[in-house]
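Section 5: illustrative case.
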């Protein structure tokens, strides 16, 4: 990704103004694109969404949690839309005088604590036993790590670093007072609509890239089974919506930053889900790549055994009906920023053949996607 000095300077200035004034905004860069889009809603707060059934008739940006509860869905309807090369000083100065959101208290990290190795391993062992006695086929267990922010950390620069380091991910930085401040580089599209074609994927299995040819990476039986579980779920969801004609591609190896995944892609005509975008999202989310299968049994296990609220981690987010396209992604490879702390999130799919220590290592490796950029001093 190449930005000229003026583009970076103006985007940086816009971000600093929005953050200082606590104004709701999201900046995002879609995979394999150079264009950064910034949506700002400065006249009122983004509204909660009680139902997403009619989301296909709206235009804006959606963010939804892993499950509805303490965290709820919000939809941003922007007052202003900025592109990376079209940010002028007059617009920034007008936002600098906005006092509507400055009195809203920002979220703190006080209720969050790092998941211990012992706790995570014990949960993996417990889930393997539950799988072996038939309670469910797969469950995704996650963990968090709370760290102090480096003294020289600047969120606007962090966002640009993410864009440069992960050109094939959906990179975003988002601030909504009720949601908090989140940033990420997610590799997993949940629903993409462009050129009258709908695309979704199943993504599972993780290896560290060693630099060799992408097609030469091989997979264990556990990883193959895990990917098949997610793929079958997505395919059945498509069929249950009455979509009879679709193209299925994969599984193939897919690189996301320093990680390699197994991916199967599904494509079909946009006319098959016309006016049913909300139904499609509800049918898929949460997929077995972030929850488990059967869905309800896996969710019960997660809620009973994870010691924290995932909030918007493993939820979904993205622009809906903007510029004629929809790009909703699963919120993976993300972190939550606070005044002087940041919280990393990661998870791993557990099956009957899972090794607890390997799952711990996998979740550590996934956290490096964000950690390496946070501690990097090079822009």
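Designed sequence:
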């Amino acid at each position: 990704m190449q930005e000229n000095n003026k583009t970076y300077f103006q985007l940086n200035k816009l971000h600093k103004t929005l953050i200082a004034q606590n104004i709701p905004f999201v900046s995002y860069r879609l995979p394999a694109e150079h264009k950064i889009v910034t949506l700002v809603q400065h006249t009122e707060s983004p509204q909660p969404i009680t139902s997403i059934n009619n989301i296909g008739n709206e235009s804006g940006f959606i963010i939804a949690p892993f499950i509805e509860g303490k965290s709820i869905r919000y939809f941003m309807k922007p007052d202003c839309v900025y592109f990376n090369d079209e940010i002028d000083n007059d617009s920034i100065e007008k936002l600098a005088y906005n006092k509507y959101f400055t009195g809203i208290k920002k979220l703190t990290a006080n209720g969050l604590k790092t998941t211990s190795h012992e706790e995570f391993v014990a949960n993996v062992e417990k889930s393997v036993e539950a799988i072996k006695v038939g309670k469910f086929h797969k469950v995704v267990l996650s963990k968090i790590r709370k760290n102090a922010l480096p003294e020289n950390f600047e969120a606007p620069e962090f966002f640009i670093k993410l864009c440069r380091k992960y050109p094939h991910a959906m990179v975003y930085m988002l601030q909504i007072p009720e949601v908090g401040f989140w940033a990420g580089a997610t590799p997993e599209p949940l629903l993409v609509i462009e050129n009258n074609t709908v695309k979704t994927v199943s993504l599972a299995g993780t290896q560290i890239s060693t630099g060799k040819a992408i097609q030469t990476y091989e997979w264990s039986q556990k990883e193959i089974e895990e990917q098949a579980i997610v793929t079958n779920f997505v395919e059945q969801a498509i069929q249950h919506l009455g979509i009879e004609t679709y193209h299925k591609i994969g599984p193939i190896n897919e690189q996301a930053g320093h990680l390699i995944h197994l991916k199967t892609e599904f494509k079909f005509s946009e006319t098959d889900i016309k006016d049913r975008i909300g139904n499609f999202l509800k049918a898929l989310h949460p997929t077995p790549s972030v929850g488990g299968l059967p869905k309800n049994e896996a969710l019960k296990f997660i809620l009973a055994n994870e010691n924290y609220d995932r909030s918007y981690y493993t939820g979904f987010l993205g622009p809906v009906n903007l510029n004629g396209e929809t790009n909703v992604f699963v919120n993976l490879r993300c972190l939550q920023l606070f005044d002087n702390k940041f919280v990393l999130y990661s998870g791993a799919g557990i099956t009957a053949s899972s090794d607890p220590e390997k799952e711990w290592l996998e979740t550590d490796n996934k956290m490096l996607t964000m950690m390496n950029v946070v501690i990097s001093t090079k822009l």
